[in-house]
C-alpha cells in the first residue's frame, strides 16, 4: 500500500517538476541563456498567488496575478539584463552570474515582505480522499497531473504546428538562419521567455497548496530544473519532461528506504550518475561536453 | 571597539582565503563551483574533531583538514572532467545541497544543527591564541601564505596549462597536456587550501554549526570573487573585504531591524553582481571583459 501511495505522490511531484523543468529547458534550449533566475520566477508566481488568494480575492484573480507576475518577470529580465549583456558579449558565465544575482535579490525581497518561514495556502481541494483502502489522494494530485498533460500537449502542438513554434525550434538550431528568413531572433527569444515563465505557474500554485513555500525554494526549483534538463538531454523537451517525472518518482519512492531529509540527495545521485555515465542524457543527441 | 575591528580583520582574512582559492579554479581553470562552502565546512569539522580528540596544535589540525578536503574534492573533480560550464554548476549545486544534509544529519561528527561546542583555541608552537588581536596575526599570515602559493602556481607552467585548458581544452590536449590530471590537481589544491580557512574558523569561533557552511556561504564567496574581479590577484581580496564590511555598514541604518541586515546584504550583492555583469563584467579590479 505504501508503495502505491508513494508512487502516486511521486507522479504528482514529478508532473510539477516536469512542468517547471520544461519551462527552463525551453528557454535554455532555444536562446542558450542560462536563466538561473527561473527559480525566482517560481517564487514570484507562488507568493503572488499566496498573497492574492490568501487575502480572499478568490482563485481566478490569484491565478491571473501569478501568471502575469511570472510572465512580466521573465520578459523584464530578458529585456533589461540579458539583452544588454548579449550586446557586448554573452559568455555563459556572465549571463549566469547576472541571472543568479537577480535570483538572490528576489529571494531576499520576498523574504523581507512575507517572512522567511514556511507558508502554505489551504484550499478545499487540499483535503485527501481514500481512493482504495490505505491510499489517500487529494484532488490536487489529479489536477497537477491533468494540468501537466494538457499544458505539455499544448506546448507540443505549439512547437510542432504553429509558425512561432517552428521559429522557436529554428532559433535553437541557428539564430543566423532565423534572421535570413526575415524573422527577428530577439522577438522569438521573448516568446520563449513568456511561454517558459508561464509554464511554472501551475507548479508554483499547486506547490503552495501542497508541500508549502519558503523564499529559498527557488534553489530547489533550480536544482530540479537543471537536473531534469541534463538528465533528459539538453535541447530535448520530451527528455526533460521524462526526467522530471523520473526525478519526482525517484524522490518519492526513495522514502521506502531513506528518511525525507535525503530526498534531495536522491536527485543529486541521479544527476551525478548521468553526468559521469551518460552526459548526453536520456534523449540527447549531442554530448554535453 | 578594538576587539570589534580585529574580529572583522580575522573574518575578512578567513573569507579572503576562501575567495582566493575559489578564484583559482573559477578564474584560471574555468570551473564554476557553487560547492566551496563544502570544503570550508569539512575543514572546520575535521579541525574541530582533531583539536578536541587529538591535539589542538595548528600543525596537526591544518594538515588533517587539508587532507580530508583534498580527498573529498575528488568527488567534485569527477564531474568537472566530464562536463564544463553550465553542467558543472548543476553538479556542484547538488554536492552543496547534499553536504548540508550530511552536515546536519551526521550528529556524532558534526553535532547536527546544534554544532560542535567548546573547540579548543589554536595552539601555535605551544602558545594558545584566543584573543582576536593575536589571532589576527595567525589569520593574516595564513592568508599571505595562501596568496603566495596560488600566485606561484598561477605563474608557473601549471598555471599556464590551466589557462590553456580554460581557453581551449582540445588545443591543450593536442599539445600533449594531460588535461584530466591538471584539472583534478587544480580542484584538489583549491579544496585543500580552502580547508585552511575552515580550520582557522573553527578554532577562532570555538563553536561551529551547519549554518556557516550552507549554499548561502558558497554564494557569498562566489560573489566576492565576481564583484572583486574573476581571474585577478587582488580581486578576490577586495571582494572579500567589501562584502564582509557591508553588514557593518548596513547596521548604521537606524530604522532597519537587526534581523533584516543579512537579507539587505544579500539584496545588495545580488543586484551588484547583476549590474556589474551588465556594465563591467571584469569586476571592480578587472579591466578586461570577464572570461
Features of the shown structure:
A: 289 residues; mainly alpha; 2 strands; 2% strand; globular; B: 291 residues; two-stranded antiparallel ribbon; 73% helix
Which SSEs are present, and which pair or pack?
The complex is a heterodimer of chains A (289) and B (291).
Chain A: H1 2-31, H2 38-54, H3 59-88, H4 92-114, E1 129-132, E2 135-137, H5 139-161, H6 163-173, H7 175-180, H8 185-209, H9 217-232, H10 237-253, H11 263-277
Antiparallel strand pairs in A: 1-2
Helix pairs in contact in A: 1-5, 1-8, 1-9, 1-10, 2-3, 2-4, 2-8, 2-9, 3-4, 3-8, 5-6, 5-8, 6-8, 9-10, 9-11, 10-11
Chain B: H1 2-29, H2 36-53, H3 58-82, H4 86-105, H5 107-110, E1 122-124, E2 127-129, H6 132-154, H7 157-167, H8 169-174, H9 179-205, H10 215-228, H11 235-250, H12 261-279
Helix pairs in contact in B: 1-6, 1-9, 1-10, 1-11, 2-3, 2-4, 2-9, 3-9, 6-9, 7-9, 10-11, 10-12, 11-12
What does this entry look like structurally?
Chain A is built from eleven helices and two strands, in the order H-H-H-H-E-E-H-H-H-H-H-H-H. Chain A has 289 residues and is mostly helical. Chain A has one domain. A two-stranded antiparallel ribbon of chain A has the order 1-2. In chain A, helix 5 runs antiparallel to helix 8, helix 6 packs across helix 8 and helix 10 packs across helix 11. The longest helix of chain A has 30 residues. The radius of gyration of chain A is 19 Å and the shape is globular. The mean pLDDT of chain A is 88. In chain B, helix 1 packs across helix 11, helix 2 crosses helix 9 and helix 3 packs antiparallel against helix 9. Chain B has a two-stranded antiparallel sheet. Helices cover 73% and strands 2% of the residues of chain B. The interface between A and B is large, with 46 and 43 residues.
Summarize the structure.
Chain A has 289 residues and is mostly helical. Chain A has helices at residues 2-31, 38-54, 59-88, 92-114, 139-161, 163-173, 175-180, 185-209, 217-232, 237-253, 263-277; strands at 129-132, 135-137.
Amino acid at each position: 500500500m505504501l508503495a502505491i501511495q508513494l508512487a502516486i505522490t511521486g507522479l504528482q511531484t514529478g508532473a510539477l517538476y516536469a512542468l517547471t523543468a520544461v519551462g527552463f529547458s525551453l528557454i535554455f534550449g532555444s536562446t542558450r541563456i542560462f536563466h538561473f533566475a527561473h527559480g525566482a520566477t517560481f517564487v514570484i508566481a507562488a507568493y503572488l498567488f499566496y498573497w492574492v488568494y490568501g487575502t480572499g480575492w478568490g482563485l481566478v484573480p490569484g491565478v491571473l496575478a501569478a501568471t502575469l507576475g511570472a510572465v512580466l518577470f521573465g520578459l523584464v529580465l530578458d529585456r533589461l539584463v540579458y539583452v544588454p549583456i548579449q550586446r557586448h558579449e554573452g559568455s555563459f558565465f556572465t549571463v549566469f552570474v547576472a541571472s543568479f544575482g537577480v535570483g538572490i535579490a528576489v529571494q531576499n525581497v520576498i523574504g523581507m515582505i512575507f517572512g522567511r518561514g514556511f507558508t502554505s495556502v489551504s484550499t478545499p481541494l487540499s483535503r485527501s480522499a481514500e481512493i482504495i483502502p490505505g491510499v489517500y489522494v487529494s484532488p490536487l494530485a489529479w489536477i497537477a497531473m491533468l494540468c501537466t498533460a494538457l499544458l505539455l500537449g499544448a506546448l507540443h502542438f505549439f512547437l510542432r504546428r504553429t509558425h512561432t513554434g517552428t521559429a522557436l525550434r529554428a532559433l535553437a538550431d541557428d539564430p543566423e538562419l532565423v534572421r535570413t528568413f526575415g524573422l527577428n531572433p530577439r522577438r522569438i527569444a521573448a516568446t520563449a521567455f513568456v511561454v517558459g515563465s508561464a509554464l511554472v505557474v501551475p507548479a508554483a500554485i499547486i506547490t503552495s497548496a501542497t508541500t508549502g513555500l519558503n523564499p529559498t525554494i527557488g534553489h530547489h526549483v533550480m536544482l530540479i530544473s537543471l537536473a531534469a534538463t541534463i538528465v533528459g538531454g539538453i535541447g530535448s523537451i520530451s527528455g526533460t519532461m521524462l526526467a522530471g517525472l523520473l526525478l519526482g518518482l525517484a524522490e518519492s519512492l526513495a522514502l521506502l528506504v531513506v528518511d525525507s531529509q535525503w530526498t534531495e540527495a536522491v536527485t543529486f545521485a541521479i544527476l551525478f550518475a548521468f553526468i559521469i555515465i551518460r552526459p548526453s542524457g536520456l534523449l540527447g543527441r549531442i554530448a554535453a561536453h | 571597539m578594538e576587539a570589534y575591528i580585529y574580529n572583522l580583520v580575522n573574518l575578512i582574512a578567513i573569507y579572503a582565503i576562501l575567495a582566493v582559492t575559489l578564484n583559482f579554479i573559477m578564474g584560471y581553470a574555468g570551473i564554476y563551483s557553487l560547492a566551496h562552502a563544502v570544503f570550508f565546512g569539512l575543514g572546520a569539522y575535521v579541525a574541530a574533531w582533531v583539536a578536541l580528540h587529538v591535539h589542538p596544535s595548528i600543525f596537526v589540525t591544518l594538515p588533517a583538514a587539508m587532507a580530508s578536503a583534498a580527498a573529498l574534492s575528488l568527488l567534485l573533480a569527477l564531474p568537472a572532467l566530464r562536463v564544463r560550464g553550465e553542467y558543472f554548476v548543476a553538479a556542484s549545486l547538488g554536492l552543496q545541497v547534499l553536504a548540508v544534509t550530511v552536515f546536519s544529519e551526521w550528529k556524532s561528527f558534526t553535532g547536527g544543527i546544534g554544532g560542535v561546542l567548546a573547540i579548543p583555541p589554536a595552539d601555535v608552537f605551544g602558545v594558545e591564541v584566543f584573543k582576536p588581536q593575536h589571532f589576527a596575526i595567525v589569520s593574516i599570515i595564513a592568508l599571505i601564505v595562501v596568496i603566495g602559493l596560488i600566485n606561484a602556481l598561477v605563474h608557473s607552467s601549471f598555471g599556464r596549462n590551466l589557462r590553456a585548458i580554460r581557453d581551449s581544452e582540445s588545443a591543450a590536449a593536442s599539445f600533449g597536456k594531460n588535461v584530466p590530471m591538471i584539472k583534478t590537481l587544480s580542484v584538489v589544491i583549491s579544496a585543500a587550501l580552502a580547508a585552511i580557512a575552515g580550520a582557522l574558523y573553527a578554532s577562532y569561533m570555538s563553536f561551529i554549526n551547519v549554518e556557516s557552511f550552507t549554499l548561502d556561504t558558497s554564494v557569498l564567496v562566489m560573489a566576492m570573487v565576481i564583484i572583486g574581479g574573476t581571474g585577478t590577484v587582488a580581486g578576490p581580496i577586495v571582494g572579500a573585504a567589501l562584502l564582509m564590511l557591508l553588514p557593518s555598514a548596513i547596521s548604521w541604518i537606524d530604522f532597519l531591524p537587526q534581523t533584516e541586515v543579512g537579507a539587505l546584504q544579500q539584496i545588495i550583492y545580488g543586484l551588484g553582481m547583476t549590474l556589474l555583469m551588465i556594465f563591467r563584467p571584469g569586476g571592480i579590479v578587472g579591466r578586461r571583459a570577464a572570461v
